[in-house]
Amino acid sequence: MQIEALNAQLLQSIGIGLALVAPDSLAIRYCNPTFGDWFAGAAAGTALADLFPGLDPAGLAERLSAGTAVTVEARVKRKRRELIIEAVIRRATHDGSGILVVECQNISRLRETEAMIDAYASMTERKTRELEREKTQVEKLLLNVMPRSVYEEYKTFGSVTPKLYEPVSVLMLDFVGFTEIAAAADPTVTVAELNDIFTAFDRIAELHGCERIKTIGDAYLAVAGLPHPNPDHARSVAQCAVKMMRYLERRNESHAQTWRARIGLASGSVVGSVIGIQKYVYDVFGPAVNLASRLQSLSEPMEISVHQDMLGEVMDEFALSRFRTETVRGLGEVPVATLADRDGTTGLRPRRRGVPLRLAATA
Fold this sequence. Notes:
single chain; alpha+beta; 12 helices; 13 strands; rod-shaped; disordered C terminus
């Protein structure tokens, strides 16, 4: 076998298309069978620019003169499939004269692979953004049902250790006649109004350093002094309760539906923890929660009932009246008073001016 035939067979076997091109006319002098298969009709005398439409002869000559190889691409139709052919054009010398060597490779699969990688990267980036959005939404939902410090512990360890918080103050609010309101009105309207009210309550609670723990139907539970200690916890829940009553009074002036609430305030200890595994919720338990709930149920409409243990903390800022002893289920007889604004704009009757607290409490 002659050396020329052997070289042609080797070029054919490695899948490289090869052409020799005249430098001046850019006409093909020789091409191997692979080159001819890719470019149908390519033969001696065919102009290289006809096979590579994007080829700039002037620019090609300038770059080749500088000793730089030039890479061009062409798309050809072969057997109902489009091939992408990449050609590298270099200067060479043959028999003492210049010649251009054009080496071609079929990079169709390479480009398909690159396209798949790009598509996968785009999909991964999109999925990552979606996961980040979902993570943010989940975090917002969890922060709506538990304090941030509890959420951070849950996120880090997957569980929350029950903690005793002492002392704290608890606010328990419930609406008067909610069952009748829900039965008489359009449920959509009732839920929308309740949502507006609880949204306002959340802002009031946040403003005064209280943590809303949960809502149960029309009941609203908030705590001051949890999860971070607050030496003014009693004053915080008292301010929160008064502002909530004031909000309801002003709202009732401009809305057809009248909303009246009862509030119970109590101080003491509570235990806070996440309850449940799949449908988990942060909740608090303890004597202060039970007492606030009982005082709420014993209150009159639009009355804030406060346990006597809190009186020393709130007597300088709020008006106190209706000193009495209530029989509380599970707790026996409990001394209770009614709390309101000093100017009497919210709550029941304020305490008469000039009556000492201790005398009024024992009267």
